[in-house]
Structure formats: structure tokens, C-alpha cells
């Protein structure tokens, strides 16, 4: 989806959270062993099979994706024959997406979601499809380089708000910054990313969190570097001594080898955590 304004650029739900900041500090740091294969057909059907080994126990999933015009259907079958399906349509009204998700045999996890995204505003409403539904709302407005967003979840059975969060995001050509108040006002997160070149191939990130209920502070720094058009490396370190590393290499078009590692600098006698993932697209 191409961005034509603040509303489109910041996405759908929790849109003001900086994607690049979260990518450097969280995305990809997976300490499991994973192997997946994807194939595409000429009629718009894609299949993905994956096996994940965690703590020595393998688990497999099979997923299928079908796209026709502006409608997408995703179906996934995991271990124990759990089935999840998602239908996404953009054909009904302009600027609006409709998403219906179903899970079997746990049908209480199914939900219906409506997303409206315009140039300077975005709104999402989600309703859980069960006897006592929960309604989740999120909205973002912005202009030029600043965006503000709020999010809340209301439980109809007890008539209480189980979640409410708010945040603000500032985007400039050479930096992004955000402040988020989450967990019903208990968690405050401030993050900043600075780009060291115009292509944003090298970046540094700093994030500090404060949990008021426990008076706990966490400070994390990280960096990302695109070594070339096929290889990306990242690293992060927090004040608790956890050092994480990440490397992704494109071994062929849309096929990736990912290696991750984590070391606890305050407990060097512990065995480092190592993750390996191989994703092939045929």
C-alpha cells in the first residue's frame, strides 16, 4: 500500500508506533529452529509449509493464500488440526477494509474487523464473535510529520474497559520519535531512531520503558545496517545485560537465511540462545 498522507503512512492499528524502531529492537530475534517452503501458482494461490522446533519439540503448519482482485483468503492448519481462516476485502467502500477471521475448534476467538484509512486519519473497529463480545477501537489522526493515536478495548459482559493506550509519533527525514502510554497508564515507552544516511540503510535506536507499578526501568539501544542489497545485520543491548544479534541474508530472490543469537552478559556461564531459520520460495 503506497502512502499518500499521514493516515496511509502510519498503517492500520496502533499506527503511531514506529515500525522501523520496533523492527530494529524486536522483529526477527527468534531463538527457535524454523524451516519453511513457499510456492505460488498462476491462478493466485500460494502455499507455505513450515516446521518449527522449540525446546526439542517440532510443530508444523500448512498455510494457503488466495488473492482475487481486492479480496484475499488465508487459511492455516497447525498441529492438533487447529484451523484459522481470514477473509480480507477492499471492494465494498472506498478507503475501507473488511476482515473476518475464524478459528476452529475455538470459535470464540473469531472476530470481525473494519478498517478505514484516509490521508490524515485512520480508524479500526474490531468485534469478537462470541456470546459476550469485546469491542476494540483504535484511531489515529495526523498532519505533516506528527500523528496521535488512541486505542481501547471494552468488555460488554462486565461493562469495563480492559485496555486503553495512547501515543504520539513525530517523523522527520533523518529521525523518528514516539512516546506511548500503555497498559492502562502503567507502562510508558519513549523511543527514538536516527538514520545515518539518506537511504536509511544504517540506523541507531534508543528506547526507554518505565513500569510505574513496579518502578522498573528498561533501557535498550540497538542498530541496523544493510551491508548490501542481500544482507542485513542488527543488534540490541539492554541495561539487564541481554545482548541480541540478528543476521538476514537473501540467498535467492525472496528466500532468506536468518541467524540469531542472545547472550546474557550478567550470566556468562549460561549457554547462549541460538536461532536458525530458513525460508525458501520456489
UniProtKB/TrEMBL annotation:
UniProt entry tagged with the keyword Signal: yes
CDD domains: Porin3_VDAC
Entry annotated with the keyword Signal: yes
Pfam family, one: Porin_3
Family: Belongs to the eukaryotic mitochondrial porin (TC 1.B.8.1) family.
Gene Ontology terms for molecular function: voltage-gated monoatomic anion channel activity
Signal sequence region: 1-26
GO cellular component annotations of the record: mitochondrial outer membrane
This protein's UniProt keywords: Signal
Domain of life: Eukaryota
Protein name per Swiss-Prot or TrEMBL: Uncharacterized protein
